[in-house]
Input
Amino acid sequence: MNRLHRQPICVASALMVPMAILATPPWFGLDGVPPCWVVLWLLPWALVDGPVSGALAGLALGLVLDGLTLDGLTQVPGLLVLGWWWGRLGRRASPVQRSFNLGLLALLGTGVLGLTMMLQLLIRGGGVLEPSVQAWGFHTLLCQILVTGVLAPMLVSFQLLIWRRRVPQ
Amino acid sequence: MAPSLRPGTNRWQVFGRLAPWLLLMTGLLLVRFSKGAGFVDAYALLTRPFWPGSAQREWVATAADLEQRARLSLLEQDNQRLRELLDLQQRGETRRDVAAAVISRRPRDWWQQLELSRGGLDGIAKDDAVLGPGGLLGRVASVTPATSRVKLLTAPGHSIGVWLPRSRQHGLLVGTGATRPELRFIIRDPDVRPGDLVSTSPASTLLPPNLPVAVVQSVDLQAVPSSTAVVQLIAAPEAIDWVQVRTR
Output
């Protein structure tokens, strides 16, 4: 039984994501690019709680984060897909436990999320990505992937430890 | 007078014994008449590590800065008076600056934005200009009662009309996400070179007129469809803690 979403304290922990995004100091990150906090929260949640709950959590967080940012780019589709995919991974495969696997998953997830951003920039630019925008986009993407991948083994395995204890398989 | 033990050499011996002292006195006389040149130079050489450093220089710079600001405010008043004479300024318009702290900043993420500690209750509205020390930072994108969100000039797709005071030409400052936005010219062969100041247009109504914005860093005259330049913004959003919002 997946009961993580029935425990208010676990659901409330999602509030940490917008708070972390707002409070990240400029020096925390790679070249000023902060880590992708939402991936670091969504990955353990989806692994423990399954695809439907993961996709819903992705949708909810995406809506909150779109409210916290400027208009133009949305994170909803990327997070929806990631929540579903990670939920299926947690359900079907043998439990992901190795910290470095978690790092790889977070790295791939951040890459997918960043690529959806680049895709939106491409569509908004009418199918053409200007060289300066392209350079900035790939720089941001690469920095965010690296710094999220570095943080994921520590933070995600910690969250998995706590949540798996609260939800006996 | 008692006879000397070694007569004949006595007077020269006395002189020989006194010679170093005489030399010293001569040296001191030289020092006296040269107004202490050697001493001061030696003192300067020895105390060079302890000379007043950057702190003192900052004091001087602050004083110069203050003087320039005083002159600027005088000129601004003068300018205001002249504009009123020309009736460029609408009557009864109340513009004031609201100081706001930067409570959250994301200058290098997918979004280039700041969150400010003042909002609609303090009279801030959408599209107000946000100024930092050095010049224009961006415009207010959205407002809540207690906070407001600033879209920085570097945000991709953010474009404002600017003006080059030296050559009196218009351009479009377009954000590309990177820390240095792009300046696009409307005419084919603009008179622009690195080091030119970029400011808001003197006839601007959307933004406050005559605000410094950036400095031209490099020019690409071969770009299609029109010439472009890369500019360095004067106000750095990474470092600024307090900003002024110019309410309309």
User: Anything to note?
Assistant: The first helix of chain A runs from residue 8 to 12. Chain A touches chain B through 27 residues (CB under 8 Å). The domain at 4-166 of chain A is CATH 1.10.1760 (Arp2/3 complex 21 kDa subunit ARPC3). The CA atoms of residues 73 and 117 of chain A lie 6 Å apart.
